[in-house]
Specification:
binds adenosine monophosphate, binds magnesium ion, five-stranded mixed beta sheet, 2 domains, Nucleotidyltransferase, domain 5
Amino acid sequence: MIVLGIEGTAHTFGVGIVEDENSYCNVLANAMVTYMPEKGGIHPREAANYHAEHAAEVISKALSQSNLSMNDIDLVSFSRGPGLGPCLRTAATAARALAATYSKPIIGVNHCVAHLEIGRGVIRECEDPVLLYTSGANTQVIAFAEGKYRVFGETLDIGIGNCLDKFGRIVGLPFPSGPIIEKLALKGKRYLPLPYSVKGMDIAFSGLLTAAEQYYRKGEDIEDICYSIQETTFAALVEVTERAMAHTEKREVLLGGGVAANKRLREMVEIMAKDRGADFFVPPKELCVDNGAMIAWLGLLMYKSGIRMKIEDTTIDQRFRTDMVEVTWRG
Ligand code: AMP
Ligand code: MG
């Protein structure tokens, strides 16, 4: 079965095409464009306009990457949520237009679950992981338990990526600041104490952000501040992930989201996994960030497990919770 998936929850508009091969995911195409605000944060309406302007071009690019035409596609899927309303509506409209024009079935999927399923889909050894999902807007620890994907811990305020980007904006770094902070942190030598807010299984970053800003205003070394931000926030993420692994007795950890590109985060999660005798997995970067291939793959899993949607049921859901998904494709 060949599926075309459309991602558009936030800054990225992506179109992926996948097929299943002995129940694993074969990515045939994964095209994307990313909206970069000239100044400040992401404006939902402007991001959606950007997606609308680029939709046709990205769809064509994915089809040509895969050497396929719409006639070869068996299903169209798209991200129903969670995400920014205008962006979600744009991606959903593109998916509905394709499905209606070419008489293809359509399925809307949960974006967070897609981040986890793509890891299981492309990494053979990865069967039942705890996912540490670290993106711009989202930060969640997700695992399959008693028939559902459950959120074991999450941020109480902003996502880890947003925390990094916001600090970057305060100190005048361009967006996205995460990769630049990673480089600066490599040269940091001195740990500056920052608030470490793990509350039960949840995490908060805004207090740390304020404290980091104060260090900057006091003239502390930017490399030391970046180093301290990474060490503190990543330690909190690893602590919650480890506790979820202990609680669920799972022996695999999977990283996802744009911040998964960070080498220090990878290293810290890997050390924790090794200590527990667990396996550590991280998909290739283009499948960690928001992308259409993961949306296509989850659509495929859902369709094959018998799920069908009428076009009138393909409404978006800005607050589509991970644990609202009926998991019909896992035994
Ligand atoms: P996503 O929302 O999943 O597309 O990921 C985007 C986020 O990942 C942005 O907040 C970036 O700043 C962040 N990011 C990307 N690369 C890195 C990196 N190497 N280190 C830290 N954060 C990163
Ligand atoms: Mg994402």
